[in-house]
């Protein structure tokens, strides 16, 4: 029985669909929404600007605010309270580091272009291949 679910979320539609799947199919499970801040990019971008912050945890929490507000609003529509958590670092690594504490991970597939929709996203693929618990990829 799945009683604890980890739902990694960013601000994508696929992440919202993953949370909706978890809420619809596991209404009695404890759901934790994880947002990972500081994903490295070719140009530095978010990771570089985050590294320059004086209060790293505070800056990460601030960046997660909108994602968590959307997640809590969606969960409220199902009459479910969720737990939220922010992690710093690479998304796949952070998700895999937390996965052991849950019965399953529900993650959104990569959205966007037709090519992206035909293949599972890079983070989802890494989590799917390396997770110590079952992974459900929502589309």
Automatic annotation (TrEMBL):
Residues 1-139 form the UspA domain. InterPro entries: Universal_stress_UspA, UspA. Signal peptide: none annotated. CDD domains: USP-like. Pfam families: Usp. It comes from the Archaea. Belongs to the universal stress protein A family. PANTHER family: STRESS RESPONSE PROTEIN NHAX, UNIVERSAL STRESS PROTEIN UP12. This is Universal stress protein. The lineage of its organism: Archaea, Methanobacteriati, Methanobacteriota, Stenosarchaea group, Halobacteria.
